[in-house]
Amino acid sequence: MGSKNNGLVPALVGLTVAWGGTVLLLSPAGRLLGAPDRLTTMILEQLVMWMLLALIVAIVMLWEKERLATIGLRSFRWTSLAWGLMLAAVTIVIVMPALAWALRATDVPGFEAGMAKVLALPVWFRIAAVVTAGVVEDSLFVGYAFTRLTRIVGNPWLAGMAAAAVFSLLHLPNWGLGPVLTYFVAVGLAMGFFAWRRDLLANIVAHTLVDGVALVVIPVLSSAR
Q1: Within 10 Å of residue 219's Cβ, how many Cβ atoms?
Q2: How many alpha carbons fall within 13 Å on the CB side of residue 219?
Q3: What pLDDT, on a 0 to 100 scale, did the predictor assign at position 224?
Q4: Burial class (CB in 10 A: 0-12, 13-18, 19+), 28
C-alpha cells in the first residue's frame, strides 16, 4: 500500500503541472507574457508548453523512476505511423465533417471565429503551433493524463472520460463552446484509441495531421488558387 501511495503523489503533482500550468497560461496570469494578440506572446506561450512537457518528462524519469513507455512513448515503429494515418483519416473524413454538420444543424457557433484568428497568423507559426499541439498536448493530456488518472481512479473508462473532458475544456477560451463539444467527441475517439493501442506516437501523428490539414494545408492551397 505504501508503494502505491508513493506512486500516487508524483502522479498528482504531474497532473497539476500538466493541467494547472496550462490553465495558468490561459488565465489572466498568462498576460504576464504580454498582450495575448501579440505574436511574441504566442511564441512564448508555445515555449511554456514545451517547458511543461519537459517537467512531466522529468517527473516520469527522475521522480517516478519509470520509462517513457509508461506514457505510451516507445521506440519508433512503422506501425505507429500507419495507425496514426488511419486515425487521422477517420477524423478528417468522417468525424469532423459529421460534427461540423451537427453544429450547423443545431445553430451552435462553430470554428469560424477561432479559425479567423488562427489564419491571420504567419504560416511558419501555424506550422510550429501544429507541432506543439501534436507532440506536447498529446503527451500531456493523453499519454500522461490517461495513464496517471487510471492509476489514481483505477478505472480506465472513467480516467479516459475525465482526461478527454479536461483536454476539451482547455480549448474553451480560444475556440468557444461549439468547438469544445466537437473536441470532446474527437478527443474521446483519440483517447479510446490510446487506451487500446497505448501508442503515443500514433496519437501524435494523428493529431498533427488533423491540425496540419485544417490550419496549414487547406488554407495554403486555398490562397494559392
Answers
A1: 16
A2: 17
A3: 78
A4: exposed
Dihedral sign from CA coordinates of 113, 114, 118, 119: negative
Amino acid at 109: P
Cβ neighbours, 10 Å, residue 77:
12
- Per-domain residue ranges of the chain: 2-224
CB atoms within 10 A of CB 198: 18
Residues 6+ apart with CB under 8 A from 120: none
> Are 165 and 180 a contacting pair, CB within 8 Å?
no
- Tell me how far CA of residue 12 lies from CA of 19, 102, 148, in angstroms: 10, 36, 8
**How far is residue 74's CA from residue 25's CA, in Å, rounded to a whole number?**
29
What CA–CA distance (Å, rounded) separates 117 from 186?
22
Task: Tell me the pTM.
Answer: 0.94
Closest by CA position to 127, among listed 211, 186, 53, 25 = 211
159 CB burial (10 A radius; 0-12, 13-18, 19+): buried
The alpha-helical segments, DSSP class H, found in the chain are 2-15, 21-26, 39-58, 78-90, 96-105, 112-119, 123-132, 138, 145-153, 156-169, 172-175, 177-197, 200-212, 218-224
Cα–Cα distance for residue pair 109/102, rounded to 1 Å? 11
Half-sphere exposure of 98 (CA within 13 A, CB side): 8
What are 175-212's pLDDT values in tens digits? 999 999 999 999 999 999 999 999 999 999 999 999 99
Comparing CA positions, the residue from 128, 148, 124, 120 lying closest to residue 59 is: 148
